[in-house]
Design goal:
The chain is about 45% helix and about 15% strand. By secondary structure, it is of the alpha/beta class. It folds into two domains: about 1-20 and about 25-60; about 90-315, Vaccinia Virus protein VP39 (Rossmann fold). The chain binds S-adenosylmethionine.
Length: about 325
């Protein structure tokens, strides 16, 4: 029904444009084809808006990593979260190189609980700014920084439409965020836009050919009697927020093709190694057994290129 109403609206718009002599090309094509092209675009926009609303709802119900925040005070909770994060994921600090923010204008897109944001803040940036789609993440990060007595301009905002002028930052960092946004390519164009010439982007998005992907396929494809279930659907439906995407190294290079130079590498994650609280929402006796028997040494040695993390460094 809504689709039909939209078609009718578009027919009225079409009639108006034809009578007024407007030259907007899709409406000047063959009547039916023209209408359906515009309707398809509108539908695409609406579907993306709906998906973004469900992504926001998902992350507003619980920010990433809250499971690691234990203690009776905010300080204790944020400290325990940071300890767990950097002991499970030591590669974050290696990639972020927080000290490189010193004296620069730094933006973090998708701050989540704010552990990395606190590291940027500790390292003396000239200015620090953070955005996240959810008020919950912004509240966490504000509280964490207030405890540490550090400053940042923190805003609820959308990676696909960053509320900053062109060429505002020297460094843009985003860890595990842009693959959740419906239009990841648009979010990366925004990162490029807000960077100054020579500025650096450090972005982690998910890698499609990963051990996590294979494990999810076993659980929701093979063992559930759907061996034909594709990885795209698996990531979209069973890994974090709805519509989550994962990319090949080649896809990632294309996503940052507008930068002057870039480097894309992969990294085994704690998920690939079945460590920490990974797999909480996929609990089963089999997962418990797999966690005990998982051949981590073999994976590190022979399957190091099948990590879930795609690390992108790009210079504008
Ligand atoms: C997996 S969490 C990662 C958070 C943090 N970077 C970390 O590593 O813990 C994903 C975060 O991305 C945010 N997010 C998703 N889509 C976004 C968008 N379009 N713009 C800004 N933030 C977004 C979510 O609200 C959520 O806080």
């Amino acid at each position: 029904m809504p689709h039909m109403a939209l078609e009718n609206d578009l027919r009225r718009v079409h009639a108006y444009h034809c009578v007024s002599g407007d030259t907007y090309s899709p409406l000047h094509r063959d009547h039916d084809t023209g209408i359906s092209m515009v309707a398809k675009q509108e539908e695409g926009v609406r579907a993306r808006d709906e998906l973004k609303a469900s992504v926001q709802e998902f992350w507003d119900a619980a920010s990433c990593g809250e499971v690691y925040a234990s203690g009776s005070t905010d300080r204790e909770r944020y400290e325990s979260h940071a300890r767990a994060r950097y002991s499970l994921e030591p590669y974050i600090a290696d990639f972020a190189m927080f000290a490189s923010g010193r004296g620069r204008d730094v933006l973090e897109v998708g701050v989540g609980m704010g552990a990395d944001h606190a590291e940027w803040a500790r390292n003396g940036p000239r200015t620090l700014t953070g955005v996240d789609l959810t008020p919950r993440a912004i509240d966490h990060t504000k509280t964490r920084l207030a405890i540490l007595n550090r400053a940042s301009r923190l805003l609820v905002g959308d990676a696909e439409n960053l509320p900053f002028p062109d060429e505002s930052f020297d460094l843009v960092y985003s860890w595990g965020v842009l693959h959740h946004s419906p239009d990841t390519a648009q979010a990366i164009r925004e990162v490029h836009r807000v960077l100054r010439p020579g500025g650096e982007a450090r972005i982690m998005i998910y890698h499609s050919r990963s051990i996590v992907g294979a494990l999810l396929w076993m659980r929701y494809g093979l063992l559930a009697g759907h061996p034909g279930l594709g990885l795209k659907k698996i990531y979209a439906e069973h890994l974090e927020s709805p519509g989550t995407k994962a990319y090949s190294v080649r896809d990632a290079r294309e996503l940052v093709a507008m930068f002057n130079r870039s480097r894309v590498t992969t990294q085994l994650s704690f998920g690939d190694l079945l460590m920490g609280e990974v797999g909480q929402r996929h609990r089963s006796a089999l997962l418990g057994l797999a966690r005990r028997l998982w051949p981590r040494w073999l994976i590190r040695r022979r399957f190091a290129n099948y990590g879930l993390m795609l690390l992108i460094e790009a210079v504008k």
